[in-house]
Write a structure and sequence with these properties.
mainly alpha; globular
């Protein structure tokens, strides 16, 4: 009997591992396809020639797509964990959702952390150096020569960063034990370096999020159709049409005016056409879209912004007056043991909405900063170098999102006490064990 129980436990563990691997692969495949569609929408079409540079661009495209998919997974993991926790609390003995257990969620977080390190320290530097490489002088030109130059640059960069950290550690903490710990590359150096990157990401989020919260109203005002109050759209379209015709006559040489050169006239004509399209879109919009959607979205943005600021202010006050409110790191209940909100599923849904809203606001704020304004991708006109920069920036922001959300008190999710093997052996409501 003991042998049969041992075999049964091993079979269930094997089935659980296969199930988790299959779910992780399907989720990542969906994210990869979506990321590929997004990147190809902005990638410059002139980079698609069939030559050596095209192969390099294609490899860099695949690596950038992989990084963007990892970033999307890092953003979605926190809402997915919150939803899973509430579902497990609502249906603890349901046979059809027993695959949604703590082991799966814990494994997803581990994969997200592993792939984030891989993309940040290996894939993206490789893609950038591979894109800029030409091969060493004296060697035969080709893909192999460019790969060799890229690997050499990566090794030199790794040695440079390792040396900087080693010197900084010796200056800050002049201890032999601290210096010897740098020899342990896997256990100490990489987690420490990733923690520093997450810290910089949190600082960047704290800088970008307030800017994004203020810019969200302007961005949504540009995307939506505003109500036409005391405006005559027909008259404006008529005036802009006359201006367009005048510019076209100047370009065709029919006008006697020569104070503008051709480049300035073409740019002015392009601006006039864009303005004309906006006016025509406002005219074609229905009454409910003009008078209902725009005010409703603005009110919703105002409510979300107010709730976010209120929650952050309350959490700061709690941290100031209550020492027990400080984050305890890995302590607390695991997945499916307690609700994350006092309002149950409604509160969890509100937390998820706020987390997405903060992430979108941080991205908008990131591109609104003057230093990162040139990173804004343009449809069908974005170089691969700029795509790599955007993917790295989004990866840093998404990796720091769970840390910032936990610090600001938007969620209280714990993963340390998540059961791994015990979850796979719980019986269902009808007495069957979980299987693949």
């Amino acid at each position: 009997m003991e042998g049969q129980d041992e075999v049964s436990a091993r079979e269930q563990h094997f089935h659980s591992q296969v199930r988790e691997s299959t779910i992780c692969f399907l989720l990542f495949a969906i994210l990869y396809i979506v990321s590929y569609v997004i990147i190809t929408r902005y990638k410059r079409k002139s980079d698609e020639q069939e030559d050596e540079d095209a192969i390099v661009n294609r490899i860099s495209l695949f690596l950038s797509t992989f990084t963007l998919a990892v970033s999307a997974g890092a953003v979605l993991l926190l809402p997915f964990s919150i939803i899973s926790n509430e579902i497990l609390l609502s249906f603890p003995q349901n046979y059809y959702i027993q695959w949604l257990n703590g082991s799966l969620i814990h494994g997803l977080w581990n994969l997200a952390s592993l792939f984030s390190n891989l993309c940040l320290f290996v894939l993206m530097p490789f893609a950038f150096f591979f894109l800029e490489s030409e091969g060493f002088a004296g060697l035969k030109k080709g893909i192999r020569a460019r790969i060799l130059e890229t690997l050499v640059m990566l090794i030199l960069l790794a040695l440079l960063i390792l040396g900087i950290v080693w010197v900084a550690s010796a200056l800050i903490d002049n201890d032999a034990a601290s210096m010897e710990s740098l020899y342990d590359l896997w256990e100490f150096y990489l987690p420490y370096l990733y923690s520093c990157i997450s810290l910089m990401g949190c600082l960047l989020l704290l800088l970008c999020t307030p800017v994004g919260l203020s810019r969200m109203f302007t961005v949504m005002g540009q995307l939506l159709v505003k109500p036409a109050i005391l405006e005559d759209l027909d008259e404006q379209i008529y005036i802009i049409t006359l201006e367009e015709e005048a510019l076209q006559r100047r370009l065709s040489g029919l006008s006697s005016s020569v104070e503008y050169n051709v480049t300035e006239l073409e740019q002015e004509l392009e601006n006039v056409k864009i303005l004309k399209k906006k006016l025509e879109r406002r005219k074609k919009a229905s009454a409910w879209e003009r008078n209902l959607v725009y005010p409703a979205v603005m009110v919703l943005l105002l409510i979300e912004t107010s709730i976010s600021v209120l929650l952050v202010a309350c959490n700061i006050l709690c941290l100031l007056v209550d020492e027990t409110a400080m984050p305890k790191g890995t302590r607390g209940p695991g997945i499916g043991n307690a609700s994350l909100s006092a309002f149950g599923f409604v509160g969890a849904a509100l937390e998820i909405i706020l987390i997405f809203y903060l992430m979108v606001s941080s991205v908008v704020g990131f591109y609104s900063l003057r230093f990162f304004g040139n990173f804004i991708p343009k449809k069908d006109d974005t170089t691969m170098t700029k795509i790599i920069g955007n993917c790295v920036s989004i990866l840093v922001l998404s990796s720091a999102l769970p840390v910032m959300s936990r610090t600001l008190g938007l969620h209280k999710l714990h993963l340390s006490d998540t059961p791994r093997d015990s979850d796979t052996a719980k019986p269902s409501a009808n007495g069957h064990q979980k299987a693949l």
